[in-house]
Amino acid sequence: MSAPATPAVRTQALTRSFGDGDESVQVLRGVDYQAGFGALNYLVGPSGCGKTTLLSIVAGLLEPGDGDLEVLGERPQRFGARARAAFRRERLGFVFQQYHLLPALTAAENAAVTLIAAGMARTRAVERARALLHELGLGGRADALPKHLSGGQQQRVALARALVHEPQLVLCDEPTAALDAESGRRVVELLRAVAVRPDRAVIVVTHDNRIFDFAGRIDHMEDGRIVKSESRMPAAPETSA
């Protein structure tokens, strides 16, 4: 399957401010940004530079100010609240620094939440989630509660939850920040192996330079702007003897 010709995400001269009058703070200062299909697209830069604000606008969680925004060929800011929620639910997947797993549900049930919320029968949704957990190396832990899983395992459950409904765009906000180096690299290696494909885009906001070698593209932000973009050759997957 070949990648679509147009970018998954495109912004032009995008702005965003918080507050009013003398208290107003401009966080995005005319961002020109593109994220393509078929690779891990990283957004990096110091705290407060606007990375998470940009990601939240792409996700439809924040309104942009001025400028232009296209996500998967649509302009979500023109949608009503119900259509925007449906767009996020059906076409986007989310991975966060905190795993946000429901403590009373098993790993498979947590991974199936997105499908159940969309109306799929619980048994079928959990079965589909189990298959994805197996692909992520957690087949033997599908019936475990979150409290019995390590941080890296919980993040893999969160990754399964983000991917189980086959989204076209996956947005990851600091997915390795709460993990040690080995667990973080393993999660991102799995993210690349399972999530990256020609018809899907993955954007990763991160401070974690330990995982930079997995990126296909890195956009550097400073003071609310993209200041440098670089294409990279991702590291080869690790192999076991």
CATH topology: Rossmann fold
Radius of gyration: 18 Å
Shape: globular
Main-sheet strand order equals 5-6-7-3-8-9
Describe this structure as you would to a colleague.
- The chain is α/β, with parallel strands linked by helices.
- The protein has one domain (9-102, 150-231): Rossmann fold (3-Layer(aba) Sandwich), CATH 3.40.50.300.
- It is 30% helix and 24% strand.
- The chain is built from six helices and nine strands.
- It has helices spanning 51-58, 81-91, 107-117, 122-135, 151-163, 181-195, and strands at residues 9-18, 25-35, 40-44, 68-71, 92-96, 169-173, 201-205, 217-222, 225-231.
- The strands form two sheets. It has a six-stranded mixed sheet. Strands 2-1-4 form a three-stranded antiparallel sheet, with helices on one face.
- Helix 3 (107-117) crosses helix 4 and helix 3 (107-117) packs parallel to helix 5 (151-163).
- It is globular and about 55 Å long.
- It starts with 8 loop residues before the first strand and ends in a 10-residue tail after the last strand.
Give the helices and strands, then pairings:
Layout: E1 9-18, E2 25-35, E3 40-44, H1 51-58, E4 68-71, H2 81-91, E5 92-96, H3 107-117, H4 122-135, H5 151-163, E6 169-173, H6 181-195, E7 201-205, E8 217-222, E9 225-231
Parallel strand pairs: 3-7, 3-8, 5-6, 6-7
Antiparallel strand pairs: 1-2, 1-4, 8-9
Helix pairs in contact: 3-4, 3-5, 5-6
In brief:
This protein is α/β, with parallel strands linked by helices and 241 residues long. It contains six helices and nine strands; from the N terminus they run βββαβαβαααβαβββ. The longest helix is centred in the last third of the chain and has 15 residues, at 181-195.
